[in-house]
Amino acid sequence: MSAxxxxxxxxxxxxxxxxxxxxxxxxxxxxxxxxxxxxxxxKAGLSFTDVGALGAIYYxxxxxxxxxxxxxxxxxxxxxxxxxxxxxxxxxxxxxALADSFLTFAAISVVGAIGNCVFHPADFAILNSSVNQRxxxxxxxxxxxxxxxxxxxAPIIYFLDDIVGRTGAALIGAIPGxxxxxxxxxxxxxxxxxxxxxxxxxxxxGAKAGVGLFLQSAxxxxxxxxxxxxxxxxxxxxxxxxxxxxxxxxxxxYAALCLIVFMVGSAAGMLAGGFFADxxxxxxxxxxxxxxxxAALTVPIATLAVSPTFLLPLLAVAGFAGGATNPSRDMIVRxxxxxxxxxxxxxxxxxxxxxxxxxxxPLFGYLMDLHLPAAIFWIAVVLYVINAGMVLTIRQAxxxxxxxxx
Length: 406
Description:
By secondary structure, the protein is mainly α. The protein is 82% helix and 0% strand. The chain contains 16 helices and no strands.
């Protein structure tokens, strides 16, 4: 029996907690960057389309670099790569204090994106090699929970801007990433180096290498699934505050509160979803069911059939339904991954998130410039439904391996 299979609970808790918080930092910096853009939009002469384009640059660079980051993780180890990513993401936010034009923000987005690209391959390489296999579903749920809480924390930049101004908000916001980078580097004994297991598994099972690894149908479908879900997730996160302000006539701060509630609901759903992922065999049914519920709950928002007051509880439940699918989604990817290819496959598949994140913000920003905010949520409904079907297709493409793993 492998060492990871026997990993004690105390060590698992330390690993899962640290990686969950680090993942939260990555999501926090993604949204905090765009939040800073929205804060300075008028002073910097940026349109909503410009904001979406800058977000697209961020995710394009991250997506291009993420597969390479997976190879780097398998070559140099996940821990130093993760620490470097945390530091770069933090520095990127700090630099927004100095930017005053589209070009300077574009340059800063590249810095933040290079930091952002490392998180999924590094995080999952550490979790897969350090955590008891029977707790992986819950480990994935805490990982996703950390991400959602990171997104939920990002709107705090609006409030920091009110209190200490733009420069103070950017500099204060950079502190968590630098602290976490030091903590990751310091946990040499707790965070297992997965490279020995990767090489051994690859030699024993003949894992595919190179481009052929990414041309397997299940892995390609996972990539597409992540791209489509990210169009929804990131596009809504970046444009929901101005969209709800225009649609429902609420203040920017109330709309920011709605976004926080949505993300906290998603985080709670991920936590619950982890227990499902460790105790069910049909992860595809959990994922598709949650997506269909989220679609149904988005329709009243798209049709303006809900009052501003009821928007809060509706968003909490919709967020919960979508969030509950994430651990099962991650288990589907793991079951489709050949032995010895964790860093590479998770790097490639999760680069789909960056592709979708690249496409969503410019599209939704353009719709905002056209004063069509409701269209954002109609697109969300359609994509939820498509993704519900997509996850069932992934199950069929990877059925032999998935059944064996389960």
